[in-house]
Write a structure and sequence with these properties.
Elements (H helix, E strand, L loop, with lengths): L1 H13 L12 H10 L10 E4 L6 H4 L15 H7 L7 E8 L1 E6 L10 H13 L3 E4 L5 H10 L5 E2 L2 E2 L4 H15 L9 H9 L3 E7 L3 H8 L3 E4 L12 E8 L10 H11 L2 H11 L2 E2 L17 H10 L2 E2 L4 H18 L5 H20 L3
Parallel strand pairs: 4-7, 9-11
Antiparallel strand pairs: 1-9, 2-9, 2-10, 3-7, 3-8, 5-6
Length: 364
C-alpha cells in the first residue's frame, strides 16, 4: 500500500542512483499480473504478497534465495512452512495476516462468545434496524473460517482435502446463517468495510489489513473479539506472512545488487516496526514472541489481535493451497442455488481443486 511506496521513496532518497517504481495492485490482480509478466521485459523485480502465493513459484519463475538472504533466526517450523519444495523463495516482512471478528461497541454491549449467543442477538439488532453480521459471503477465504470451526483442513501434505464431513457441515451452517438473516448472502467487501463503518452492521469479519481504516472510522467504538465458538470448538483463521518474492529470476539479473539493497532496507527493524504498529501486524522478527511493548494500545485492540493470531493456522506454501479457491467458490455457489447437496458440493470442490492443481503442475 502507500506505506510501501513511502518506504521506497525513502530508499531512493538515500540511494539516488537506484530508481524504484512502485505499483499498487489488488491481491488477485497482482497474482495475475505477475504470472502474465514472467516472460515480459517489464516484469517486476520484487513483489510484496501473502506467503501462501509462493505456491505459484514455478509460474512466477521466482528466484531461490541465496543463503545470506535467509533469516535463520526464524523458528525452524516457520521457515519450513514458508519453503516451497524445501527451498526458500521469500523474505518475510510481517506475520499476522488473517481474518478477525470486529464489532461496533455502540451497538454491541457484550460481544458474543459463541454462535448461539450471536444468533440470539439477531432479533435485538433487527428490531433496532441494524443488520447482525457482515461477511464477504461469496469469498471462499471468508468461508474457510467455518470449515475450521468444524475441524476441517483445506489441504494436507500438498494434497487437497475438501471432500470431508467438516466441509459439508460448514456449507450447511454457512447457509443457515444467511437463511436466518444473521448474515446476508449478497454481501461483498463493501459490507465488511464501508457498511460496517457506517453502523449498518453490528459485527463484521475482516482482515488485519482493515484495522487502520476501521479504527479511523469508528474510533473508540471499534471492538475486536475472538471468533465465537460452537460447542467448544474454535475458529482458526487461515493466516499468512507478508513477504517479498523475486519473480522472473530477478535475483540472477544484473539488477540483483540493487534488489538486495532495497530488500535489506525494507527489512530494517525501524522500517518494519513503523508499518506494523500502524496496521496491527507483527514484524517478522517478533512473530514467535508475545511481547506487545511496541504497540501503545490504550483501547486494547492489539492484545485481541494477538490472541486471535495465536489461534490462527499458517497457510502452507504449497501447490495444493493455491489450488483450492476456485473449486471451493464454485462448489459454494452450486450448493447455495441447490444444484448440489452438501455432500455432492464437497465432492465437486475436491475434483475441481485437484484438477486445478494438476493444471498448475503442468505449467498451464
Amino acid at each position: 500500500d502507500a506505506d510501501f511506496a513511502a518506504l521506497a521513496t525513502s530508499f531512493t532518497t538515500s540511494h539516488p542512483e537506484v530508481a524504484v517504481a512502485v505499483h499498487l495492485l489488488p491481491n488477485e490482480e497482482l497474482k495475475a499480473s505477475a504470472i502474465r509478466a514472467k516472460d515480459q521485459q517489464g516484469a517486476p523485480d520484487i513483489i510484496i504478497i501473502s506467503s501462501d502465493n509462493i505456491g505459484y513459484a514455478d509460474l512466477m519463475r521466482l528466484s531461490e534465495l541465496p543463503p545470506e538472504m535467509v533469516d535463520t533466526a526464524m523458528p525452524a517450523t516457520t521457515l519450513q512452512t514458508l519453503q516451497f519444495r524445501n527451498k526458500n523463495y521469500s523474505v518475510p516482512l510481517f506475520a499476522g495476516n488473517h481474518l478477525l471478528m470486529l464489532y461496533n461497541k455502540a451497538l454491541v454491549k457484550t460481544p458474543a462468545s459463541d454462535w448461539p449467543q450471536l444468533i440470539a442477538q439477531h432479533d435485538l439488532f433487527n428490531a433496532a434496524g441494524v443488520q447482525t453480521l457482515a461477511l464477504n459471503y461469496q469469498e471462499p477465504y471468508w468461508f474457510s473460517i467455518f470449515v475450521s470451526l468444524f475441524g476441517g483442513n483445506l489441504t494436507y501434505d500438498d494434497t487437497v482435502t475438501l471432500n470431508t464431513p467438516a466441509m459439508q457441515q460448514a456449507l450447511q451452517f454457512y447457509q443457515q446463517l444467511a437463511k436466518s438473516g444473521v448474515t446476508n448472502m449478497q454481501c461483498g467487501y463493501r459490507c465488511v468495510s464501508e457498511d460496517f463503518y457506517q453502523g449498518k452492521f453490528a459485527y463484521a469479519v475482516n482482515g488485519t489489513w482493515a484495522l487502520t481504516a476501521a479504527r479511523e472510522r469508528l474510533g473508540s467504538d471499534l471492538g475486536v473479539t475472538l471468533f465465537p465458538q460452537l460447542q467448544g470448538r474454535q475458529i482458526k483463521p487461515l493466516a499468512s506472512y507478508i513477504v517479498m518474492v523475486f519473480p522472473n529470476q530477478s535475483l540472477s539479473s544484473e539488477k540483483a545488487p540493487q534488489i538486495k539493497q532495497l530488500t535489506a532496507f525494507f527489512q530494517r527493524p525501524e522500517n518494519v516496526q513503523a508499518i506494523a504498529t500502524k496496521h496491527f501486524i507483527t514484524p517478522y522478527y517478533q512473530s514467535y514472541q508475545t511481547n506487545t511493548a511496541d504497540y501503545p494500545d490504550s483501547d486494547g485492540i492489539y492484545p485481541k489481535v494477538l490472541a486471535q493470531r495465536e489461534l490462527s493456522q499458517l497457510m502452507p506454501t504449497s501447490a495444493a493451497m493455491v489450488s483450492v479457491w476456485n473449486g471451493m467458490q464454485k462448489g459454494m455457489l452450486l450448493y447455495q442455488n441447490k444444484t448440489l447437496d452438501a455432500s455432492a458440493a464437497a465432492e465437486f470442490m475436491q475434483k475441481v481443486s485437484a484438477r486445478d492443481q494438476q493444471i498448475l503442475a503442468a505449467g498451464l
